[in-house]
Amino acid sequence: MRLPLPATDLVQLKARVRALAENRPGVYRMVDATGRVLYVGKAKRLRTRLLSYFRAAYPDDKAGRILYAAHDIRWDYVPSDFAAYLSELRAIRRDRPPFNYKANRTRRSVLIKVSGGPAPRVSSGPSVARDDRRAYGPFRSMGRTADAVRTLNDLLGLRDCAPAMPMVFAGQGDLFTVRRQAGCARHELGLCAGPCAGLVAEWDYRRRAETAMAFLEGRTIQPIDRVVRAMQEASGRGEFEIAARWREKFEQLEWLLAATSRARSAIELLTFVYRDPGEFGDDRVYLLRQGRVLHSFPYPATPIEHEAFRGVVREEVERAAPEPGPLPLDAIDEVLLMMSWFRQHPESLRRTTPLEQWLR
Questions:
Q1: Residue ranges in the chain whose pLDDT is less than 70
Q2: CB atoms within 10 A of CB 346
Q3: Domains and CATH numbers, the chain
Q4: In terms of Cα–Cα distance, which of 261, 251, 222, 223 is closest to 136?
Q5: Nearby residues of 280 by Cβ (< 8 Å), 6 or more positions away
Q6: Region for 227 from its dihedrals, namely left if φ exceeds 0, alpha if ψ lies in -120 to 50, beta otherwise
Q7: Beta strand pairing status for 352-353 and 26-31?
Q8: Closest CA to 274 of 87, 83, 85, 90
């Protein structure tokens, strides 16, 4: 089979990489002839990583496909592996390279999302969709999270149909002449309020969605109260099989309540100053607040530099902390990266300092 030619002279490109790239942490970008970034990657040993692309088979290997599409390789050195992870993430978020997004990178964690629109949906998944307005987590178990979300939706009568399903609320009767039927059997089973068929008022549906968000933020346990009452009533009537099913729902919601609380606490704990050692002595200091990297500087080496950075910390301490609740939609990937980094590198926690202690 005749293969397409690469976008550039790979022999010369390889020679340039071999001559100029160093084996130190870095972030690299594959770009096309117009300068558009096609792919962003990071490496602890940059030269070794870049040369591996030239050994990849085309078109079977993803690395080979990226190299064939690229016109040039550009790179920047960073002090450490931590800096490489952070720089790669921010470059991907800024440039939105097609090969990074087409790679379908999967997360090992799962989120609970609340969509926008007149009839919000509560769902779970590994990534945030364009119409999602809130996200909670992360959670480790995809199955347990999905079961708990299904129970929460059933108890509150929230829809789980496709996002594009048309919504018609009660009181909008002038929009249709015949009585509409719900699009699925959940309404007949008492598990959905029926916003697709004008069977619930918009204010009522929004109240249900607000209750779900309050539960996920730890501000109410109303859904659990309902389950407990139903379980006790079924047990009092001697309907022990039904009571057992309510007990299962109770355990799912109890797990979800505890899991959301743990997630909020884990993110809240990611508030400190982190000293990250550089590969060549070029240490950096990062100021994190609830998992977001707000400031980064070379580690202060003189009294004047210490005082300057202390001023940055003082300004952050004096600023009101965000209320614990949903994840910041514009920085979810960064928060998850920080959680993953300090979980996989627990020794890094020894180089963290609480903000107030740094001021002292």
A1: 1-3, 102-108, 172-180
A2: 8
A3: 10-102 (3.40.1440.10), 110-262 (no CATH), 270-359 (no CATH)
A4: 261
A5: 24, 79
A6: alpha
A7: unpaired
A8: 83
Strand 132-139 vs strand 122-125: parallel, antiparallel, or unpaired? unpaired
Residue with tokens 């020679």: 15
What is the structure's pLDDT at 241?
Answer: 95
With b meaning 16 or more CB within 10 Å and e meaning fewer, what string describes 69-87? bbbebebebbbbbbbbbbb
**Long-range Cβ contact pairs of 172-181 (< 8 A, separation 24 or more):** 172/198, 173/198
Give the pLDDT confidence score for residue 106 in this predicted structure: 43
Q: How high is the pLDDT of residue 1? A: 43
Residue 51: its pLDDT value, please? 98
The whole-model pTM stands at: 0.89
* CA of residue 316 relative to chain centroid, distance: 24
pLDDT digits (tens, 9 = 90+) for 259-286: 999 999 999 999 999 999 999 999 999 9
What was the pLDDT predicted at 5? 85
The reported pLDDT for the residue numbered 211 is 97
Residue 18's pLDDT is what? 97
**Amino acid in position 127:** S
